[in-house]
Structures are given as C-alpha cells and as structure tokens.
Amino acid sequence: MAKFLTSLFLICLTFVFTRDVSASSLLIRSYSRSFNGFAAYLSLAESMKKEVVFVFPSRTYDLDTTRSWDFVGLGERAKRESAKESDVIIGVFDSGIWPESESFHDQGFGPPPQRWKGSCKGGRNFTCNNKLIGAMFYPKNSVSARDDDGHGTHTASTAVGNPVQGASFYGLAQGTARGGAPSARVAAYKVCLKDVGCKDVDILAAYDDAIADGVDVISISISREAPNILSNSFAIGSFHAMTRGVVTVGSAGNYGPDQGTVANVFPWMITVAASATDRRFVDRVVLGNGKASTGLSVNPVNFNGTKFPIVYGQNVSRTCPALQASFCAKDCVDRDLVKGKIVLCDEFLVNKEAYKAGAVGSIVLDTFTRDVSFVFPFPVSSLSLEDYSSVKSYVMSAEKPEAEILRSEEIIDKEAPYVPSFSSRGPSFIIKNLLKPDVSAPGLEILAAYSPEASPSDNPGDKRSVKFSIMSGTSMACPHVAGVAAYVKSFHPDWSPSAIKSAIMTTATPMMNVMKNPDQEFAYGSGHINPTNATDPGLVYELELQDYLKMLCAEGFGPQLLTKILGRNITCSERTEVKDLNYPTMTTFTTALKPFNVTFTRTVTNVGLPNTTFKASVVSPRPEIQISVEPEVLSFGLLKEKKTFVVTVSGKGLKDGSVVTSSLVWSDGGHSVRSPVVAYSINPFG
C-alpha cells in the first residue's frame, strides 16, 4: 500500500463507500515507467490520505492530405533533412491504427532509432515494421491496437504518412496523400474505443509508456475542459512529457464558435485550432423546374441525370406529430412512403432516419454547422435557410416535385485560411492571461488514410470500405502541427519543446479576415502554420521546467504538492505571474472601462545568425491601446545568446466585451519574429 500512497497521481474511478478495502485489491492500473501513480477504486477515506498528491476521477472523452500540406507551403519538394527526420518518433494517442495501410509501409526505412525502447504489442494478427515501430492498446474490452473507428489511422497518416499517389475518396480529392514528416516513425497508442470514448486511466497509461519508449512528439486529438491546469490526464501527462523533452500537441476542441470553449490550455502543450484550406467540397441540387441550389456534403454518388420524387418529412410519417415529422425525427420516416424518393427534412442531424428508411437521398436544412461538408451514407445536400426555403416552397407548390442531387465537386475557397465555426475559441476560462489556442492548422475536409473496417460516414448501416476518407475537426488540425513539430525537430534535434513551439508560433501567418473570424486571435492564436519558416525563426522564446514551476506557484499550487510531483524539493520562493511566463504571445485581461497599464517581460534566444541586430516594430496598432518596447533594438554577437526586453501595454479602458489585438515583430531584415499582443475585457464566465 505504501508504494502507491506515495505515488505522484491517483485516479479515482468511483468512490466505494460500502466496505473498507485496500487500494491494492481494487487496483486497475499503475504508472511507473515515466512517473508514479495508479488508478483504483477507492473509498472516500482512502482518497483523502495525506500521502496522496491529489485525486481526480477518470472521465471519458470524445475524439475531439492531398491539398493541406501544399496549402501551408510544405510541398513535396520542400527542403528536408530526411536522415534526421527518420530519427524522429511521433506517438499518436487515438483509436489505434490500420497497420496494413500504404501510409505506414516501411519500404526504404532502416531499423528504428537505437534509443527506441518501445514494443509492438498490438494484439493478434497485428504486425509492426520499421515505419510503424510500436503499438499498444489500453481500453478495457479492447483486444488489439487495430483501428476500427478510422479516426486514429486518419490522424497518424496526416502527421507521418508515406506519400501515396492516386489517393482519393471515390475519386474526390484525388492526389498524393502524405504526412508532414513522411520519413518519421510512428508509434500508435490506442486509448479510445469505438462508441465508448477515451478514458483518463488509459490516456495516462499511454503517456507513461510513450515517454519511457522514447517518442519525440505526442499527438493527442482529444479534448475536454478541465477545472485547473493540473487536474486531468492531459495536463499531467503532457507536463511530464515536457520535463523529458517531449513535445505534446493537442486539439483545441470542437465546441465553437462560442468564446471560452477552448480546451487543452496548458502552457506546456501546443493547442491547435482548425482552419480551412483553399479546397472545399460542395454539391448541388437541381429541381424539376430547373432551379439549382448549392449545398454542403461530400457525396461521391452520381445520379447520372436522373431525377427522383421529393417528399417532405411531414408527409411521410404515419405516427409522429407534425413538428417531429418535419424534422424526420427518430422512427418518424415511414419506409413504404420514401422508397425511391428524396426526403426533405427540417433538421440536419436526423438525415440518418431517411437513410435507415430506404430513401435514395435527403435534402436537409443546415441547422448544425454553416461551413463543413460531411460524408453521409447516401446522397445528401445540406442547404442554407434561404436555399432550403426555396426548395421547400417548390415541393409544396409543384404537382410532382422532383430533384437530382449531384455528385460533389471541388471548388477553390479564396477566403482561406479562416477558422470554421466548430473550432473552439478562447479566451481560456482556466488561465485568463494566456492566449489559447496557440496556432491554427488545416482541419476542414481533410483527406487522409482510413480504416477499411470503419464506416466512412460513421453510420453502422454504411458498409462501404475505404482506404482514404475525408474528415473535419480540430482532431485533423492537431496532427498537422505534430507533423510540423517533427519536421522542425529534424532540422534542430537539440531544440527543447518550448523552442519548437515558439518557432511554430512566431512564424505563423496572421489571418486578418475579421469578417470571417471577428474573434481574431481567440479563434486562430498566433496564426496559420508556416512549416518551412518555422525551421528558421531567427529568435525563440524558451521556457524551462523552473519557469513553469514558478508560474504554478503563483497560480496557487503549493510547494508540498509540487515537491511530490517532481520528486525533489520545491520551495516556491520565486513566483512568476502568467503574464510574465516567457511565452511567444502577450495577453492581458482587463476590467471593462477601467484604465490599465501592464508590463510583459520576455527573453529571446538567438537561433538565426551571429552578429545580428533585431529591431522592434508594432504592427497593426490600435487606438484603444498603446504599446511600447524597451529596448527597441536587440544586438546579438553569438548564437544562443539571450536578450531581455519589456513590453508595456496601456489603455484608458476597453468597452465591455471587446478584444483589441496588435502584434510585436522583431526583424533583422531576414527574419520576422511575430508575437500577438491581446487586451480584452471578455469574461469567459459570462
């Protein structure tokens, strides 16, 4: 018992009050390879023993590219350090992986890096190779690391997939699918189970193993809010990864566009929002009267000019009230009334009912999201309110209404990049003076490898089997940044996680489309990733373990707790406010209408050229705030030399609910090191 009670973390899965039992008798999992802890069923008294650092319940979470890499400037001919890239290992925490996918073949790969300490324990009939060098699975009732959901294969191939020519989804998005670091190795850690989710107990086990195995980058496309910055498996695991030099990249969440919804806000993690590329998928509905409307969906089916009768949901139900019937609600669509017809539904999410009833297609009102094309199990067109109302009017007035749903087509989106509505927004409700998300990356309609066992539409009745599929979400954005982190590390193997993070953030391209993203940096962070520039950022903002500890002390985490976490004496004699954490962005929350004057102290390290001088400039100044920098010139004689400066941000008072943004840029004529400066009076608590 003593072994566990002195452990670093304890996950309480459920409290047991009925009898007095020891933790060892109800032990579920222990963590000992990279940190000390355990998961067990405990009584309330056991969970409150003084030797325990803290307890948190194990929760279950949801699993928050032929064009995307070209769009961000990392084309097939981009400069690479292939030999060094081959030494980089990305650990993917997800729903597993499909090992036979062409994206993970090992032709041309040598043996794994010598420092690799992991193993291939993927279960029966699961084989690793010199590309896919490791596999583990953790969920209860799981028997393999094999992916039966598709999500894990998609994210892994986005990060590190081999180039696969001729990839497509039934001819859509055809091209060469590849990851951001195609020469890197991948290890799959299955922490999510289809239709069940992803549990803290399994996520923490994966961190324990991956850190000890020797991964360089962890990609975790899972997100959920947390009450503080050290209160769940994401926070704990990524913190320990940081102490061991491992970069963790996490998704911001799919709870947008509301503000204050961003997840994975821990300062030692790279938090990624989703953005659009310049390729979109649309489909068109052509009515019997010749009028056409453009909707959203990924529809590979071609009706070949055949029009089918349209019936309104309200008219194809024998059992449901009118309102439910109009929505095509569950069990409201009568099979005998929709066979061979297209069903018109007033609600997006219930299109599956028309499919289940045997309709040939469905036209739905887009009540779910305004800017995403999804894969459906049959032809669907999701229309705006205006277009849907026009179709509905036709159906109600025509004697024999009919329509054709056309096969989807690819269009150029000239407004990209921008952040779609589903991507979670800041500010963080946990830590107000830290800008989150950190960056944005392609996450809208991304083609990548897929599990042939999984339904591409996530509909059990959809028996199609595909090698590649199209998905959207911050889950797709996250592995893009994991791939970039691996790419940067291949140029700079000795860089710390904070240096890699800084390089990605300060070279990101600002997205200035305020009409599409009025929440600005709270939508996209520092901007849209620019992988090639990230390999040569000029300056980096570095953070060490001691810096995070000082911040945690200032945030109210006591020395006793931190001593147990680190296994060495922490006194909290020095404290650093969040605003003065050496972060590549500068953010301040102010009380509305009150004058403010805030200083930010930052230190940059020269990683560009020796004997160089950087000059400061304020880009896109705003009249509501005044920004000054002291000194305005930084001269470096040597590489790795450090210089400190202070930024002062002041104002007479911001309107309630306003966000004012600008940027500080350090330039030596060849490098532009950009840091967003954000002042806001939004209260994420409402």
From TrEMBL:
The entry's keywords: Hydrolase, Protease, Serine protease, Signal
Residues annotated as domain Subtilisin-like protease fibronectin type-III: 580-678
PROSITE patterns: SUBTILASE, SUBTILASE_SER
The Peptidase S8/S53 domain, residue ranges: 86-525
Signal sequence interval, chain numbering: 1-23
SUPFAM superfamilies with a match to the protein in the record: Subtilisin-like
Active-site residues annotated for this sequence: D94, H151, S475
Family: Belongs to the peptidase S8 family.
Name of protein: Subtilisin-like protease SBT4.3
